[in-house]
Each structure stands twice: as C-alpha cells, then as structure tokens.
Design a protein that fits this description.
Low-confidence stretches: 1-35
Mean pLDDT: 94
Strand order of the largest sheet: 2-8-7-6-5-3-4
Bound molecules: pyridoxal-5'-phosphate
Protein name: Glycine dehydrogenase
Organism: Auriscalpium vulgare
Number of strands: 26
Strand content: 5-15%
Structural class: alpha/beta
Distance between the termini: 51 Å
Shape: globular
Length: about 1000
C-alpha cells in the first residue's frame, strides 16, 4: 500500500502535514541554482524594493532550488531543457527586461495615474447601449473590489459555490421579471454577441431551413456589425430595413427565421411592436428583442407583447462603462426555447440529504460541449458583472429602480421641453431616456452643436450633419444637467438655464399609456429586504462566505491558470479616469487608454512572436472564432473561399470545434497516439485528403494532456504544405513565455486568455478577454468596428460590441506584464513548469500520471488518471474531487480532457508550502481509498462517496450519523484544518434531479415564507 512518503534526502527536513513555515536552506548556491533573476539584490540605494516578481512568484529561491533538487536537477536551465523540446525553444533571453522593462508596484500605480489623467473627464450622453452607471459604494468595495468575489472560478463545484450561484439566480430572476420572459441565463458576453446568439437560435429553430434574418434599422450599429460577421459563418441572409413596413413582403416572409427589434431603438424611439410580433409569428419566425433594463421598469415588457428572445446589456445596473466593458449581457427566452438557450443556466436542485442547493443546470449540455454539433461556443461569460447587476437590483429593489427610472425619464422630459423651446425638433415621438434632435431649425449644423458641447466638456451622439442624439442616465446630477442644457441654450444664444428657471412643472410623459408597464416586477423577497447598507453588506458577505476562492487556498484547475490577481493591477480599474469612459468617446479624450492598448498589443506581439494584435474578442472562445474568421477572410482574399475544412485533435477543448462550426468550417477530428501526443500520421493523412479544402488546423500547446509535444513544428508544416493555416489555442501560453512561442512553433494566429496567463481574475465565470495575435499576412483581416476605427484594412466585421472588447480589464494584463518585466515573465513560466513537475513527482507512486514526455516531464499541468479505482473501490474521479473540498481545496479540472482524469495546474503563484499541502491532501485521500480497496470501509458508504461533509451533516445526531467513520475523520482529516477549515455549505448536489426538474429562478414568496417558518 503506498504510504505518505517523507522525503529522506530533504535539505532541511521538510515539513509534511505539519503546520508552520517550511525550513529550507537559503544559500547563495541555491539562488544560483534557481537560475531566476527575481531575488537580485537592489542595484543601488535608490532601486525600488517593491519589485513585483518576488510577490507574484510563490516559491522563493530556496524552495525552487529544493524542488529542482527533488527532480534531480542542479539548475533551472537543465530542467527546462528537458521539459520544452529543443526544436521550438527560443534563445533563453528572448524576452528580457530591456524589452519589457519592469516597473515596481508603486511605479506602476504612478504610471497608471498619469495615463488616467490623459483620458479627459468628459461627460458622455452618447448612449448607443452604454450609460454612465452609478455603482453603489457597498457593491463597489464589497463585490467589484473584493477578491473573495472576483477570484473565484466558474461554479462547476456547486457545494463550494452556493453564494455566487444564489447571486446568479438573482440575476436570472431579475431578468425574467423585468423582461416578463419564462427563463433567463446567467449572462452572455455583450449585447451584440447576445443578439448574434439570438439570431442563430432563430435560425436553428427552423432546423436551419429558413435563412433570412431581418434586422430593424433601429438596431445599434455595433450589434449589426457583429450580426454580419456571425451570419456569414452560418450562411444566414441578413436583411436590414424598417420592420414596420418591410415584413409584408411575401418572398421575405417565406424564408424568414427571425426578426431583431430594438426597444427603445438607437434613436430613443419606442414603438408598439405587438402587431408586428403577431405577423412575425404567423410567418413561423421568432421575435428577438434587444432592450434596456431600466426602461423596462416603465415600459410594457417584451414578454407581454410577443417576444421569443429578449436580450441586452445589464451594465447600467451598477457596472462602470469602462470604455466598453466588461458588462454582463442578459438573454431570456420563452419556455419552449429553454433547452436550446446558449450560455450558462443556474438551476435549483437538492443535495443528497434533500436540502435545496443551486447548481449549473444542463451542464453537460453546455453548448460548446456539443463540439461540432454546437451552434454557440460560449464558455467564459460575465459572471462578476451579472452579480454586480443583480446586487444593484437587490439593493434598490423595485421601488428604488422605479425612482431611478422616473428621475432619468423626468430629466429627459425636461431636456426635451427646454430644447424644443429653442427650435430643436425631437424626432422620436416616444422616448424613455434618449432624444434624437433635428438641429436644422436652431443651429447651422450638427457639427457646430458638437463643437460647443465639447467646449463644455460634454459628448453628444454623432448621428449625421442634421441630427444629434442625447441619452441621460442615473449619474446626471443638477450641475451636469445644467451644463448639458446650456450647451443648447448657448448654441442659440438664449439666456442660461438655471435650477430656478428650468420649466419643471409642465412635463409631458414620453411613453404612451398603451406602452406603459402595468405589471409588477421583482416581487421576490430577496429584492425587498436588503435596502439598508447594513443589510446589504451582510447579504454580500453571507453569500461570499459560502464560496471557496483564491483567498482561501489554491485553485489548481488545469487549463485555467488560476494565478495571483494582484491588488496593484486591480486598483486602477475602479478609478473614474478609466471606469467612466464611453467606448465611443472621441479619440483625443482617450489618449491614456490608447497608450495602454498600444503597449499591451506590442507586448503581446513580442510574447507570441507575432506581428499584429486585436484586443476585441472578449473571451477565449471569442478569440478562437475571431481567429478562424480572419483565416477564412485570408483564404477568401486569395480566391480560396472554398477552403472550409478545419482539423482539430479529439483532445481539444469543446470551444474549438464549436468556434470552427460558427466560422462556417467543417470539423475533421485528428487522433492522438497512446502516449497522448498528436498522431502526426493521421494529421498528414487527413491534411492530404482534404488538401483542396483545408482551411485550418487548431492546436493547443502545450497540449491539453499537459505535455509539450516534439511534433508541433512538423504538424504546422504539414498544414502549411497542404494550404492550411494554423490556429494555436493559447489557453496554455503560461507554459511558453520566453521559452518558446506560437510563431516559432509555426502557428499563424493564436488567442490569449488574458484571464489565465495574464492575470485577469476569473470573476466566478467571467469576465475574460481573448485577444488574438497574428502573423503579418493575416494582419489586414483583423476585426474592424463600425463606430471606432480598429483592425486591418480588409478587416472582418466586428466580433464584439466594443472596439477593444472589455477594455477596462486590459489594464490588469497591461499592469501584470509591466510589473513582471521580461525576466519576471520568463521566470513565471519556468516556475509554473517546475511546480507542475514537482507535483507530478510528489504524487507519483500514489496516482497514475497519464502522460509525460520522453524525459518523463510534464508541462505546466499534469493529468492524473483515476480509472483504476472504479474497479478496485467503486470510486470515480468525482469522489476524489468532492473529498478535496473537505480538505479545503477547490478540486482541479475534473473529467476533461479525459473522463476518468483530473487536470492539475498549480501555477507559479503558489508557494511550495501550498503545493505540498495540496499534495499531502491528495496522498491522504489515496490512503482513504486504500481503506476501501482493502475492505476496511464499505464501497457505498465511505468518506469519499459521502464527500463533501458540510457542517449540517457533521452536526447530525448520533442516531442519524449512520457512517462507518468518525466525524473527526470526515471533517478534519488533516492537521491544518483545525486552524483553517472551509465548510462546504451543502452535501453533494444531485445533478440529475436538477436537470429533470429545471427551476432557474429564486424561490417564490410562498416557498421563502415556508423556509423561514
Ligand atoms: C484549452 C481551452 N481553450 C479554450 C477555452 C475557452 O476560453 P474561454 O472560457 O475564455 O472562452 C478554454 C477555457 O477553459 C480552454 O481551457
């Protein structure tokens, strides 16, 4: 029986399963052995001491040297030489401090401040789907700025994620209630991509037989651009026009799959679409509505007048504009469409004791897991921002929201009355917060008005030379309002508007009675009891306390790179200089952002070895889709539009084939060999077979099996020889930096998950960013944007709503790179490799390592196989994962890429002590499994099968505790738990029950009353 092994050759008698600081020998020799630059003594008396690499990288020099020695190496270089194939290595100093000069934490914050000042603090009334939100301070500090909310992973482990699952259910309930729809998901990436998902659902609902999707001309331009991109891959025909007249055309109706309407539209107009909706339904098509949550507190909700799909941006519920995001898009559908809905859905289920519990519903049917059968690739979405929006609704409640909406509408009414007095003509008959003004009766041109607005520090919407647009929001106070109103008064040389002379008494409502909301909303108790700050603070902390995150312990999720999200890199994010910038603000007002964007693009190009970068895609999967669409455009430009085959290894992440299908490609799978490496012979055979139609090959490197394969360059050559392009999935880029890079490997394009390698926190399931870097020949095809110039001269249409995606979080990756500098980046990758290999070494003899390279090395993560335990103990990989929760750890990635495996990734940020603690836990669990194998514990009633053990189970009476092990063993199986115990709040959640009884909103008033009885 494998026992916990205490290393006998330890340099300083290692501490295993004992609490307290490790004692390792620290000598100059050891520093040299580590081969890292991070512990250099300061170069002068004035050199900063707050250097970031020392804080970011977990193991110190002595610890790293110890890990190397356990693996049998006397230098880091010797180790790296055996982990990374020599064929693809870059010179060891490829990215140096000279190329990316490191800034100390303090220097970084000063630099960020200076760049923030370069963004001019104009007040934007541009609208077009973006508003100045007011973030309630209690939410700003306790959610947005709180690592216990932002460092969590997607809630795949429901028992240690009940807090954010509840909050996401609040989000879903809020959306269902405000839109009056049957079911809502827990966020999508942005409004434009949500509209694209709606279009594809409509297309799919006709079994892809009807190919025309009609877009009303009141839809936002960025939405239209994203629809254009997405329609192409699916072969959908987009028709744009006035929905109120065009839909009578019989030829159009016979091929119609759906219609997209904007309510209120880009010009602020609110139309009664009820008759239109009937007409669309009578053509057998779906009604898709893009809308605004605050407006819906006053307007008849789309679910009451015939919508099938309702979507939009929830950011005006307390999420900063942030130069375009991140923002949580919402998406709601009718009952009959619920099982086809893209994105994550949180459902109510129960645990094995019958206690109610939340979980990700229909998890195995998440669209991207359907691989080439998927019609959506959504994986990372916008959980943190959805949580903020939900908290905003919890804080304000229905009455608070009505007050806010009434104020915004009231100020818009007042502005209308004022400007009409100056002969500006409001062109939208009905309105909520947006007016479109014909300026010709009052001033010579729209330009003149914009010029005087800019002179007052105000941005209006540019429409054309005769019209301007104005959108008001919750942030508009009296001073702002007067400044805005006086842009108009001064343009016509009228006396200034003051608070005393403003015509507030005779305001006319902007919404007709027929379109006014009469139904209640947000009547669930959660939206009606946390309105004082004290209550709100306690609610936020109550939910937070149910969730395990990086503030507790390591989250060793393979392929997810859960590393430090440093405080210094997060601080600038919530400064107003970055938070309150509209994505369509004029270029001369956003010079700070422009500089950050340019520097980040340049650094990412250096790191990947590529030529150009697009920061538009706002998730890894969105990057895949963008990259493949760029490849398609490249082939098309060469008259090779028929190239439509994409080769993808069977081990690839589900988003790869899903993205390929969305880009209009046909997926052909490629096999792996017994040792886990790519089957080059199979690749060659398939590439040659499809030579005339080969568009691309997608590969993850190091592979999803956690190994740097020797054959990567050969694979790329095979593809190029057969006319294809190579897409590298950069999810594992953390293992590559400065050791190799996608360009050297031979790829043409790669996406980077900034929320993995470049330290953007995962936010409990988003936000993320998935920029792509490309070789020179693909640069002309990078995505453009309809409002702000971006991308290449022959660029594809937009892939996201905002020009630079979720721009504000780019600051985090920018800061991360700048603070680490070239050497720190390289050192991070080396330590990531070292930690994974050290872990593989510690776990060997206890578990079966599935794959390694010819030198016995893994890359930055390791795949452990649990298949053997099924027969010997009746245990599955999930039982081990759930038991880890009792030890206070978030389980690694489970059942992917192989169903019986765990993929473990420690990252460079975890100290040796933490890595050891995790290994100790794994080894202890192996001992527990051995007891079952030896027949000392029953196969169906043991600590693993019954894991996790929440406090409610430990507190069962002696009679109810029918388990052949002690409570002590269940809850405190390791010594450190006596001081540091994280309690799962429910027992193992019943997945099947949740999927069979799909309930995705908050408990009703009656149920809640019952709970409290
Ligand atoms: C290998 C791989 N590719 C692609 C993705 C998709 O990235 P995202 O979740 O940012 O869309 C993931 C996400 O975990 C991944 O692990």
């Amino acid at each position: 029986m494998p026992l916990l092994r205490f290393p006998s050759t330890s340099p300083a008698g290692r501490l295993v399963l004992q609490h307290g600081p490790p004692r390792y020998v620290r000598t100059p020799l050891v520093v040299a052995q580590r081969g890292l630059a991070t512990a250099k003594p300061p170069s002068s008396l004035f050199a900063p001491l707050d250097t970031f690499p020392d804080r970011h990288i977990g193991p110190d020099n002595a610890e790293a040297a110890y890990m190397l020695s356990k693996l049998g190496y006397d230098s880091m270089d010797a180790f790296v030489d055996q982990a990374v194939p020599p064929k693809v290595r870059v010179a060891s100093n490829a990215i140096t401090d000279e190329e990316i000069k490191p800034l100390s934490e303090d220097e970084l914050l000063h630099r960020a401040k200076d760049l923030g000042r370069a963004n001019k603090p104009f007040k934007s009334y541009i609208g077009m789907g973006y508003h100045n939100a007011v973030v309630p301070p209690v939410i700003l500090r306790n959610v947005m700025e709180n690592p216990a909310w932002y460092t969590q992973y997607t809630p795949y482990q429901a028992e240690i994620a009940q807090g954010r699952l509840e909050s996401l259910v609040n989000f879903q309930t809020m959306i269902m209630s405000l839109t009056a729809m049957d079911i809502a998901n827990s966020s999508l990436l942005d409004e434009a991509t949500a509209a694209a998902e709606g279009m594809v659902m409509a297309f799919a609902s006709t079994a892809q037989k009807k190919k025309t999707f009609f877009v009303d001309d009141g839809v936002l331009p960025q939405t239209l651009a994203v629809l254009r991109t997405r329609a192409k891959g699916f072969g959908i025909r987009l028709v744009i026009g006035d929905a109120s007249s065009a839909l009578s055309d019989e030829a159009l109706r016979s091929d119609l799959c759906g219609v997209l309407l904007q309510y209120p539209d880009v010009n602020g107009q609110i139309s009664d679409f009820a008759e239109l909706a009937k007409s669309v339904h009578s053509a057998g098509a779906l009604v898709v509505v893009a809308t605004d949550l605050l407006a819906l507190t006053m307007l008849k909700p789309p679910g009451e007048w015939g919508a099938d799909i309702v979507l939009g941006n929830s950011a005006r519920f307390g999420v900063p504009a942030g130069y375009g995001g991140p923002h949580g898009a919402f998406f709601a559908v009718t009952e009959k469409l619920k099982r086809k809905m893209p994105g994550r859905l949180i459902g109510r289920s129960r645990d094995v004791t019958g206690k109610p519990a939340y979980r990700l519903a229909l998890q195995t049917r998440e669209q991207h897991i359907r691989r080439e059968k998927a019609t959506s690739n959504i994986c990372t979405s916008q959980a943190l921002l959805a949580n903020m929006a939900a908290m905003y609704a919890v804080y304000h409640g229905p009455n608070g929201l009505k007050r806010i909406a009434t104020k915004v509408h009231g100020l818009t009414q007042l502005l209308k009355t004022i400007v009409e007095g100056y002969d500006f003509k409001v062109t939208n008959g009905q309105f909520f917060d947006t007016l479109t003004l014909d300026v010709t009766g009052a001033v010579p041109s729209a330009d003149a008005l914009h010029a005087s607005a800019v002179a007052s520090g105000v941005n209006l919407r540019i429409v054309d030379d005769k019209h301007v647009g104005v959108t008001l929001d919750e942030s508009v106070g009296p001073v702002d309002f007067l400044r805005l109103a006086n842009v108009f008064s001064s343009a016509v040389k009228a006396p200034a508007v003051t608070l005393d002379n403003a015509p507030v008494s005779h305001l006319l409502p902007g919404v007709s009675e027929g379109l006014t909301r009469t139904s209640d909303f947000l009547h669930h108790p959660v939206f009606n009891r946390h309105h004082s700050e004290t209550e709100m603070l306690r609610y936020i902390h109550h939910l937070q306390s149910k969730d395990l995150s990086l503030v507790h312990s390591m989250t060793p999720l393979g392929s997810c790179t859960m590393k430090l999200n440093s405080t210094s890199s997060m601080i600038p994010l919530t400064w107003p200089e970055f938070g309150s910038v509209h994505p369509f603000a004029p270029a001369d007002q956003v010079k700070g952002y422009a500089e950050i964007i340019a520097e980040l693009e340049s650094d990412l190009n250096k790191i990947t070895g590529f030529y150009a970068c697009s920061l538009q895609p706002n998730s890894g999967a969105a990057g895949e889709y963008a990259g493949l669409s760029v490849i398609r455009a490249y082939h098309e430009s060469r008259g090779e539009q028929h190239r439509d085959v994409c080769l993808i290894p069977l081990s690839a992440h589900g988003t790869n084939p899903a993205s390929a299908v969305m880009a209009g490609l046909k997926v052909v799978p490629v096999k792996s060999l017994q040792d886990g490496s790519l089957d080059l012979a199979d690749l060659k055979e398939k590439a040659e077979k499809h030579k005339d139609r080969l568009a691309s090959f997608m590969i993850t490197y190091p592979s999803t099996f956690g190994v740097f394969e020797d054959g990567i360059s050969d694979a790329c050559k095979i593809i190029h020889d057969n006319g294809g392009q190579v897409y590298m999935d950069g999810a594992n880029l953390n293992a590559q930096i400065s050791l190799t890079n996608p360009a050297i490997c031979g790829a043409d394009v790669c996406h980077m998950n900034l929320h993995k390698t470049f330290a953007i926190p995962h936010g409990g399931g988003g936000p993320g960013m998935g920029p792509i870097c490309v070789a020179e020949h693909l640069a002309p095809f990078l995505p453009t944007h309809p409002v702000v110039a971006t991308g290449g001269e022959k660029g594809i249409d937009a892939v996201a709503a905002a020009p630079w995606g979720s721009a504000s979080i780019l600051l985090i990756s920018w800061a991360y790179i700048k603070m680490l500098g070239g050497q720190g980046l390289a050192d991070s990758s080396k330590i990531a490799l070292l930690s994974a290999n050290y872990m593989a070494h510690r776990l060997s003899g206890h578990y079966s390592l599935r794959y390694n390279n010819a030198n016995g090395r893994v890359a930055h993560e390791l795949l452990i196989d649990f298949a053997e335990f099924d027969k010997s103990a009746g245990l599955k990989v999930t039982d081990f994962a759930k038991r880890l929760q009792d030890y206070g750890f978030h389980p690694p990635t489970v059942s992917w890429p192989i169903s019986t495996c765990m993929l473990i990734e420690p990252t460079e940020s975890e100290s040796l002590e933490e890595v050891d603690r995790f290994c100790d836990a794994m080894i202890k669990i192996r001992e527990e499994a051995d007891e079952i194998i030896a027949g000392k514990q029953p196969r169906d009633n043991n600590v693993l099968k019954n894991a996790p053990h929440p406090m409610s189970v430990i507190a069962l009476s002696e009679e109810e505790w029918k388990r052949p092990y002690s409570r002590q063993k269940a809850a405190y199986p390791a010594p450190w738990l006596h001081e540091k115990k994280f309690w799962p709040t429910v027992s193992r959640v019943d997945d099947a029950y949740g999927d069979l009884n799909l309930i995705c909103d908050c408990p009703s008033v009656e149920e809640t009353a019952h709970d409290y009885a």
